[in-house]
Write a structure and sequence with these properties.
The structure is a homodimer of 226-residue chains.
Chain A: H1 3-9, H2 16-27, E1 32-36, E2 41-43, E3 51-57, E4 59-65, E5 71-78, E6 82-83, H3 85-89, E7 98-101, E8 105-111, H4 112-121, H5 123-146, H6 152-167, E9 171-173, H7 178-185, H8 189-201, E10 205-208, E11 211-214, H9 217-225
Helix pairs in contact in A: 1-2, 4-5, 6-9
Chain lengths: 226, 226
């Protein structure tokens, strides 16, 4: 992959004008590109995270071990995701997860200095960096809020009622994929789909694409009162 | 407060050279300054957060209500803290907490456009914005990790053992205050201090200022196995 295609794969610019200025910038910037085989460990939990990694190709799994040594998948990362942009700038910049490749992957690695230089030149990149960190905070805060609900049914009820309130409608536009939702709830993807189907069969919800209609609001509220 | 003192109070620059360039920038930037009495609501949970608020003077409490309508304090914010810098740039930028003043406060409010302009000119500000968002992610991820431990004693044990591993020493340098630690554990500050004292009396720990010595590692590990 030449540098132009690489930067495009990494979602580094919005349009052709920005592409040109971004390309010029990379002439004088430090960066490296590395390829990994499927199943490779890219970094271990606890490693210092000093360069911003951006996925140009492939899929990574972010994993943790619980107290008994069982591996828990925390997150799936796909090109052009940035890897842990928040951690890079945190005072305690140890990686909280182990990164393992799920497919062959190509990673662009940028030292902090390069990240700052790009932020000054490329407003789109700066915005995406701040947005990614912000989205992560919102995700974690919501995950924390939902953790007190033990069943998937309660988690779905609480998530949908909160979104309905925020969106001011009983028709909730899902802003995250079912995969991300299963990571938000800390449950397996098939289990989430099964409970969604059950709730649809019971006439509580109806789903059309990314829209979920709350048909029986009282039933959802009852779930949270128990 | 004139603008120079205000920007200084907001921690907007590192030294006098940066102060001058930052001051010049503010001649052409949009911003506003607002004062609040003690006990005032600055924003409600669910409000759209479109301007970056920076505390120039005073203290805020970030609060949430639980399902039964009880008020839970989530965080204390003190000048020169930025308020929810992550949320500002998140796709879902509804404030997850209600902001209430604890003392008289002065808040500098910057529209996103101004924040971007400052980021381009002032590297120190950009770094602090990214660092604040990163620190929040680390804080929330650690809070999530600790939530599975029910007692304060277990939380302390897990936190200290993890820090000891990260810092590669049985002498742990506390990187957060006891107040922040009580927010991390989701417990009252006096309860945290009491359990710390008990563990010191039992010869498990010794604390000197910000350093905590793990004297009985086995005892801490046992706590987490139960």
């Amino acid at each position: 992959m030449d540098i132009k295609h690489l930067l495009k794969a990494c979602g580094m610019f919005k349009n052709d004008t920005e592409a040109e200025s971004c390309l010029r910038l990379f002439d004088s910037l430090k960066y490296s590109v590395k390829k990994y085989h499927r199943g490779a460990i890219v970094m271990f939990r606890g490693d210092l995270y000093e360069h911003l990694f951006i996925l140009a190709e492939g899929t990574l799994s972010a994993e943790m071990e619980d107290l008994k040594g069982r591996v828990l998948k925390v997150e799936t990362l796909k090109a052009p995701d940035k890897i842990a942009p928040g951690i890079l700038f945190a005072e305690d910049n140890h990686l909280p997860v182990t990164l393992k490749t799920v497919t062959e992957t190509t990673i662009l690695s940028l030292p902090k200095e390069s990240v700052f230089a790009i932020c000054r030149e490329n407003r789109y990149f700066l915005l995406s960096l701040l947005r990614d960190a912000g989205n992560k905070i919102v995700f974690l805060a919501e995950k924390m809020r939902l953790i007190k609900f033990s069943s998937i049914r309660e988690k779905i009820a609480s998530y949908l009622l909160d979104q309905a309130e925020r969106q001011g409608s009983n028709m909730v536009e899902l802003k995250i994929s079912k995969e991300t939702m299963s990571e938000l709830f800390g449950v397996a993807r098939p289990s989430l789909s099964r409970v969604f189907s059950e709730m649809t069969d019971e006439g509580i919800l109806r789903q059309e694409g990314r829209s979920v209609y709350i048909l029986d609001r009282q039933e959802l509220e009852l779930l949270l009162e128990e």
